[in-house]
Amino acid sequence: MNSQLRKIVDKIQDKSLREKVTQLIENPAIEIEGRVYCGLPLDKSPAGLSHHHSYQGGFVEHVTASTEIALSLCSVIERVYHGNVDRDLVVAGMVLHDIFKPLTYEQERNGTYATTPLAERLDHLTLAVSELVRKDFPLNLIHIVCAHHGGSAGPVWPRTIEALVCHLADVTDSRLNGEVLRAARYLSKVATGEELHISTSKEAFEVVRSKAVEGWDGVRRTVEKITDGRSS
Ligand SMILES: [Fe+2]
Ligand SMILES: [Fe+2]
Fold this sequence. Notes:
By secondary structure, the chain is mainly α. It is built from nine helices and four strands. The longest helix has 32 residues, at 161-192. It is globular, with a radius of gyration of 19 Å. The two termini are 32 Å apart. It binds fe (ii) ion (2 copies).
């Protein structure tokens, strides 16, 4: 298992839940009509095709960031609002919420990502919910996965505190990453005439920061530094 994902899964205190999550992370495949679908390796996969985390390694980054955001929300609930929240369910929910996204992507010969024929028929949320039911996961964990897009973009609204926390953490991280990616693409296009292909989140944050600190010249220098680094 990817070491970053291992660290997150190890936060789950309940042994049987941790083992079930581990099994699925180690073999994130799904069988339909006798055919096994595997998809991209979790540590190589993006977590989106264009809106957010749309580069190699984006899946692990998104799981890591959204878990941290979710655990911060748990602290707020406990310390400020004096509420109760099941952290095991929250961590397991964040780890599994997009578990079959890598299964819906394939990499083209030129390195770009595209959706698979399976993804045209079933989305990552439906795939995950059906597999979690088949593997006898707890209902409240399946609900987290089912509700993580919210009710306007998914089948149900979050109906538990844990599902609400996971939904908000997912939306927050997708938005944070997506806004910075979009801004970096736009700034690079205006500054150089050509849109920079962003291949890591670090590049996107660097471009956006250079505009705020050094203006358009800073953007040009940063884009140059990134593209020179690639060709050397
Ligand atoms: Fe999702
Ligand atoms: Fe997500």
